[in-house]
Amino acid sequence: MQDKKNTNIDEYISNYPKEIQEILQKIRKIINELSTNLSEDIKYWIPTFVYNKINLVHFAAYKNHIGFYPTPSAISHFQKELKEFKQSKWAIQFPLSKAINYDLIKHIVIYRLDEEKQKYL
Fold it and tell me: Which of 1, 60, 65, 97 is disulfide-compatible with 93, CB 3.0–4.6 A?
């Protein structure tokens, strides 16, 4: 259901059924609560959170999973916690058939924020 015409995250989320919207809104809320220095955007046709002009994380809804895109370094760092999830160098798939691990998403975003902040020390 990704529509290249979406111009903001609200539009993106509104394209999905209510139960998927709730998941996407919860992920969005978790990310936004972690820093006041984030901006929201649509990049690569999916919701993106930007920190100091750097793409921090992206997420997207698919038929059977939520895709979460932190960076290869974050995926590598959380390899032990991610072993039960399908993943690639750039992506993690949280299956919709299981409860979404929001705590893990939160820890990954915190890691990414810390990683980016270190670049400015």
Answer: 65
Q: Where are any strands of DSSP class E within 9-51?
A: 38-43, 46-51
Q: Where are the domains of the chain?
A: 9-118
Can you tell me the distance from the alpha carbon of 62 to that of 1, in angstroms, rounded to the nearest whole number? 7
* pLDDT beyond 80 at 8: yes
Half-sphere exposure in the Cβ direction for 29 (13 Å, CA): 8
Q: How far apart are CA 90 and CA 76, in angstroms?
A: 10
Domain 9-118 annotated CATH 3.30.930.10: no
Token readout for 56 is 């921090």
Q: Which amino acid makes up residue 105?
A: I
| 36-51 residue pLDDT tens | 899 999 999 999 999 9
Contact between 68 and 94 (Cβ < 8 Å): yes
Confidence of residue 3 (pLDDT cuts 50, 70, 90): low
Residue 6: which residues within 8 A CB-CB, separation 6 or more?
12, 15, 42, 45
Cross-strand bridge partners of residue 67:
60, 93
